[in-house]
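Hi R.,

Here's the chain you asked about this morning:
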Amino acid sequence: AVIKIANKLKYYRERCALSQEQLAQLSGVHKLTIYRIEQDKTRVPYPKTRTKIATALKMEVYRIFPPVFLR
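And the predicted structure, written out as tokens:
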């Protein structure tokens, strides 16, 4: 089964008992960006954004965001 990034991010954020706004503050990523990722409106967040979010959640990037191979 494929689990979408949106679902994974929301799952880990809620597991840390954080609101979108709290995660935004901790990560330095705009809360609208967090919202858009969780709503599956942003398909592939920038590497810097992925790193900031994962760091704020105290997780490895690959656990939330799969590797991206661009052509």
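The chain has a mean pLDDT of 91.

Let me know if you need anything else.
M.
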